[in-house]
Specification:
single chain, alpha/beta, ten-stranded mixed β-sheet, 27 helices, about 50% helix, binds ligand C2E, binds calcium ion
């Protein structure tokens, strides 16, 4: 325990000695000074907890010393007990006037003085704690932008905390004492409401809680949250009203920002998929509850990709923004009213942009399907207006599918799916039109159509990727080439097999674009490898019939090779028998042209079609690929074994290289090796793999040699 330090300032040396004796026994540590000057210095040096100060000092008087001590920062709150020899009220009052904490009359009753000192010290500690917690409270209020006030309505007087004034940007003298004095600073739209709340608190004793905006000098518009509680006297009369006012501007801003990030589309400012789903859910539930009807319009722009391709993405963005605005302007405003209770006061929330060129509209409270049809027609017309400001007028059309809730779906998923189906049906009927969903819509047909539509976006949305499957020489273990196989990573369906989407692309004509893309990418990657100084191998691309007969084929290949300064030796083209035999005369010409360019030609899936031997001889071919259907069964099916052996013999006769594809087992590899097939491709060696994996394989090369060792083990 620490002893409290008492400083006695008195020139009476006997009294000093007695004080030492008594007060030390009472548990104090006593220091003494005999005049004013040393006394004041001792306060500074010794930092006493309490001062006993005689009124009469040789160099000054006690009152003056008291006054001087109060002016020093160190002793503003220091307890000072004046020792007066004069037991009259005048000197007592004087002591207090000069800032004394207490007084004590001489001659001194030491026992009593000990108690008095204890008492004064304790009282002072309490005061210090109070001052400390008040400071902490003020600090907390400042940090929380929280002002507090007490309003005494009968005197129309208000006491406000410092932070309250800070919030209002006002100084205490400027804001009149009445609580109503804030009204001129309140936003005009909120003024009536705030006035009413104040009046009701004052007259009827209603507590309140509300948010309102004010304009604060130098701080601009602020949003405040205010809470007021009315206190009554025992008689029931209103006594006073206590309130806290918080500046929540930053909070509100942050909430707005979060909301806009989470719920709105950056480009158009329309609702995004998330908000759209929530609203749709809400509207469906309401329709079910109230027996009303709502409609979902699913809008997809026709051939939007072409705009992006020909005019650039910036132009594409402008088109999407313009269309967003136009769709918005087609919505009746009465649809808005119905949404009010869901915090929606913006009609644009009914319109959403889900993906690149997909928009949706939710119509609420429609009385008949024709209402939705009318809006759809209006939207089609609005969209079809020329879009200016892009250097040339651009005309866009859209297809709209309509599903009605709840009859076409009672949950979000099914109504979206059905509106989507109807949209594809609209596209199928010839674009720039709308269709209602009906139950006879054939999911399978539309699914294909949907796939086609998605495929058109796959290139621009980077969903396509090239995989590589090595062709191996099993005798040396060397990678002698690779087949390039297209992969589509669909955002919803996952990996879609080329067996599924290539036929769709062929049917829709999109295969032309797709083929051009594969050619370009394969050559670019080959160039990349050469630049990196990697061991490179020829890459084989697959062509569909439409690619092969397209007039752009030869110029495209020539330009791509030239642009990338790539030797044609690195390009292989795989063509099926069916393609070759379609129009033999034309085929010969194209093949000759490709051959003249120095490109290696391979016949894919050999053995599955019908090939006339005489024609085969006339074609400038380099390679036959035995179809994997035969390879699969060579061990168990003598027919397939015979055909495979015959193809190998034929290839040798025609001096063509022969490749077996789909080699999965060492037995198959062994069989093929014995018959003289020296190039193989299949899961036994490697599955088709992404570019990075194939690069690693090219760099290591060794894995294949290990593979080959395994084959020879079987062989021996
Ligand atoms: P394809 O030209 O006959 O390609 C060989 C197919 O066999 C590939 O299927 C390949 O992954 C698969 N395969 C390879 N080794 C094995 C094996 O050991 N066992 C089995 N069961 N299969 C194996 P994928 O990649 O699914 O391609 C399927 C077809 O899609 C290709 O058949 C080709 O006709 C077409 N295709 C792929 N990419 C393109 C392309 O870029 N353009 C065109 N026009 N068609 C392509
Ligand atoms: Ca192939
Ligand atoms: Ca094949």
């Amino acid at each position: 325990m620490t002893f409290k330090k008492i400083l006695l300032i008195d020139d009476d040396l006997v009294l000093q000695a007695i004080a030492q004796d008594h007060l030390t026994r009472d548990g104090f540590n006593v220091v003494c000074a005999s005049d004013a000057a040393t006394g004041i210095q001792a306060v500074i040096d010794e930092k006493p907890d309490l001062v006993l100060l005689d009124v009469v000092l040789p160099d000054s008087d006690g009152y003056k010393v008291c006054q001087e001590l109060r002016a020093l920062p160190i002793s503003v709150h220091l307890p000072i007990i004046m020792l007066t020899g004069l037991d009259d009220s005048h000197s007592i009052v004087q002591a207090y006037d000069y800032g004394a904490t207490d007084f004590f009359v001489k001659p001194i009753n030491w026992k009593l003085l000990g108690y008095r000192i204890h008492y004064v010290l304790r009282a002072n500690r309490t005061l210090e704690q109070l001052a400390h917690s008040e400071a902490a409270l003020a600090n907390a209020q400042r940090l929380a932008h929280l002002g507090s006030w007490e309003w005494y309505p009968h005197e129309d007087r208000t006491e406000r905390s410092d932070e309250y004034y800070r919030i209002y940007g006002a100084d205490a003298s400027l804001l009149a004492s009445s609580m109503f004095a804030i009204l001129p600073q309140v936003h005009v739209e909120d003024q009536e409401r705030v006035r009413k709340a104040l009046e009701e608190a004052k007259n009827a004793g209603h507590s309140y809680q509300q948010e309102f905006r004010i304009s604060a000098p130098r701080r601009g518009m602020r949003v405040l949250h205010e809470q007021a509680r009315v206190f009554r006297k025992p008689t029931g009369q209103i006594d006073y009203i206590e309130g806290i006012t918080q500046d929540i501007t930053e909070l509100v801003d942050a909430q707005k920002r979060i909301r806009s990030l989470a719920y709105y589309d950056n480009l158009t400012g329309l609702a995004n998929r998330q908000l759209f789903r929530e609203l749709l859910q809400h509207e469906l539930q309401r329709a079910l509850r109230q027996g009303s009807q709502c409609a979902l319009l699913f809008i997809d722009l026709d051939r939007f990709k072409r705009i992006n391709d020909t005019l650039g993405q910036q132009a594409g963005d402008l088109v999407l923004q313009t269309i967003g605005v136009r769709i918005n302007s087609c919505i009746r405003s009465c649809d808005v009213a119905a949404l009010h209770h869901h915090e929606i006061n913006n009609k644009s929330e009914q319109v959403a942009r889900l993906g690149s060129d997909e928009f949706t509209v939710i119509l609420t409270d429609i009385t008949q399907p024709e209402d939705a049809a009318q809006v759809a027609q209006r939207i089609l017309e609005a969209i079809a207006q020329p879009i200016e400001g892009l250097g040339q007028d651009v005309i866009v059309s859209a297809s709209i599918g309509i599903a009605l809730g709840p009859q076409d779906g009672t949950d979000v998923e099914s109504i979206i799916k059905n509106a989507d189906l109807a949209m594809y049906a609209a596209k199928d009927t010839g674009r720039n039109t709308y269709r209602f969903f009906d139950r006879t819509m054939n999911e399978a047909v539309l699914d294909k159509f949907r796939l086609e539509n998605d495929l058109r976006k796959a290139i621009e949305q980077n969903q396509l990727e090239l995989y590589f499957q090595p062709k191996i020489n099993p005798l040396s273990g060397e990678i002698v080439g690779a087949e390039v196989l297209l992969r589509w990573k669909h955002p919803q369906r996952g990996m879609v097999s080329p067996m599924t989407f290539i036929p769709v692309a062929e049917e829709s004509g999109f295969i032309i674009e797709l083929g051009a893309w594969v050619l370009k990418r394969a050559c670019e990657i080959n160039r990349e490898w050469q630049d990196k100084g990697m061991p490179i191998v020829p890459l084989a691309i697959n062509l569909s019939a439409a690619n092969f007969t397209h007039p752009n084929l030869l110029p495209d290949i020539r330009r791509t090779l030239e642009d990338l300064e790539l030797s044609p030796n690195f390009l292989v083209i795989e063509l099926t028998e069916g393609i070759l035999m379609k129009d033999v005369q034309e085929t010969v010409e194209t093949l000759n042209a490709l051959k003249r360019m120095g490109i290696y030609l391979s016949v894919d899936d050999f053995g599955t079609g019908y090939s006339s031997l005489s024609y085969l001889k006339r074609f400038p071919l380099d390679e036959l690929k035995i179809d994997k259907g035969f390879v699969q069964d060579i061990i168990n099916d003598p027919n397939d074994a015979a055909i495979t052996a015959a193809i190998i013999g034929l290839a040798q006769n025609l001096k063509l290289n022969v490749v077996a594809e789909g080699v999965e087992t060492t037995e198959q590899a062994d069989f093929l090796l014995r018959r003289g097939c020296n190039t193989m491709q299949g899961y036994l060696f490697a599955k088709p793999m992404p570019q990075g994996d194939f690069e690693n394989l090219l760099l290591s090369g060794m894995d294949m040699r290990d593979m080959q060792a395994a084959i020879f083990m079987v062989d021996c």
